[in-house]
Amino acid sequence: MTYVESLLPELSKESDWFWGDRSEASKSLVAQATSELKLRYEAKIRRARANFAHTTKRLSDTEKATVIASLSAVAPPGVWGIVLPTPCPACGSPAFVGGRDKSGDYGDTWFFPRGFGCRVCQLTLTGQELDLASIKAQSLAEEPDPDPDWEPDFDVM
User: Fold this and answer.
1) Which of 1-5, 26-30, 100-104 has the lowest mean pLDDT?
2) Between 20 and 30 A from 74 (CA), which of 13, 53, 80, 123?
3) Distance (Å, rounded) from C-alpha 38 to C-alpha 58?
4) Strand ranges (DSSP E) for the chain?
């Protein structure tokens, strides 16, 4: 439903035009699926935090820092070719997100996350869970601040 809803403005059509008498049922199903996804995500975060607390509860601050550094030094095994460091949304430790790259339209390269793993609290995330954790696609451009006034010159083409 969300995909269709994103296309309707481009077609200059309203939601009721496409969904007809199924509009309320569609909205209800999407809301229910979204609620269930959020509940599962929040449960994963709680479990990971509890696991982290259990693992580190008897450690001094120095020992805790050493354990976190050693566990987070290497990315968990995965199938994705690119792995980027990212903080864990559950325990805050250094962790990794794996994904794929794709060349953009103007020579830039984008990273699309597909899986997240934290060795410290054992949290794993995939799919829409990554969106809930605010782990989103990002540009891998080396230029930190592209020119905001730049526009392609369509007359040359």
Assistant:
1) 1-5
2) 53
3) 32
4) 82-87, 94-103, 109-117, 124-126, 138-139
